[in-house]
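Marked as duplicate of an earlier ticket. Keeping the data here for the record.
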Amino acid sequence: MNIVSDEAFRWALTAITGIVAGGWGIYDTIRLIRSPRPDSAVTRDRRFGYIVGISVGLIGVIGCFRFHGVM
């Protein structure tokens, strides 16, 4: 007995994943743009973390597209 259909479940998980990944990527992109020049090791580490966050967001969004055959 299913509460929702398989297709609705796939779309719900895709929407949740896409929204979280897209938001994460956008947030880290904004933080990277606003970050100061990399004068210290802490600033360089933060910028590296933002780049990793952007990569994770892109992988999540691309994964959602690929799951539905768009890409």
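See parent ticket for discussion. The chain has two helices and no strands.
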